[in-house]
Amino acid sequence: xxxxxIVEAVFHDDPTLPYMLIYDNGKTRVYxxxxxxxxxxxxLKGDRSSYQFQxxxxxxxxxxxxxxxxxxxxxxxxxENQAYGVQVQTYVPGKPVEYYPNGEQSKxxxxxxxxxQQRLCTASNKVKTNSIQNIxxxxxxxxxxxxDCPIKKSAAKLLEQKRYLELISQPDxxxxxxxxxxxxxxxxxxxxxIDVRLIxxxxxxxxxxxxxxAILFSSYFLLSALLFxxxxxxxxxxxxxxxxxxxxxxxxxxxxxxxxxPIALGLLKEYRFSKDSHTDPEIHQLEMEPFEKSIQIxxxxxxxx
Length: 305
What we know:
The chain has helices at about 5-10, 50-60, 105-125, 135-145, 150-160, 160-170, 210-230, 240-245, 250-260, 260-275, 280-300; strands at about 20-25, 30-35, 40-45, 70-80, 80-90, 175, 185-190, 195-200, 205. By secondary structure, the chain is an alpha+beta fold. The longest helix has 22 residues, at about 105-125.
């Protein structure tokens, strides 16, 4: 298949190749291409990532059951002095669950991420990971770049905790999916089966094994509760989630590491807001609220302040 022609058709609005825009957040655009076997074209503004590395990693993780998309073709383009990174990927069926998942869906999602973790750890030994940053270093870097704010205070507390430092500095580090929110999962439901697949693999970070379930619980389940059922946060039950994970997890350690996602992403958003002098204070507060609430809820469950 002529993947380069597919990319050119998207950029030049070629009517002979039917496609539709299915996602656009200003920086990333995603198109579905109506070929006999549907394809996806992801266009990332300003992106010059190592697609060769991403393609090798996704090939390892996708395996025979197509847990993730495969990158079939990639290139970088420069149009009118604007750089673009472009990927042609396999199409992943299903759609996000835009409500807090029920018990069976939660089990399927958790088992899928457990499989993902095993494959990422195996892949970490097969592909070069020197381009991936350690999450602890990311938090420290972002911490130094933002002004005093609630998220920075939370980061300071985390960075001072002895147990956090013990967990985050464990010698066995592997590739971790750093953003497992609900839009990155596609679910297909049949009578007796729920298939779960992942559609986006950014950002990737390095960290200890315990970080992957912790990020899943905070970035998917807790954030979904805040987004879809803010008045029914009892839907988020950490004990149920822990019981669904195929291996035993220490509850106190998981709750501690669950702070990593809202703090790391919150610091990034605060940094971006600091660079925009025209930011509306109400929009700023609205965007930061889920991360600050997540931190408060995690601390309340763990009994810390």
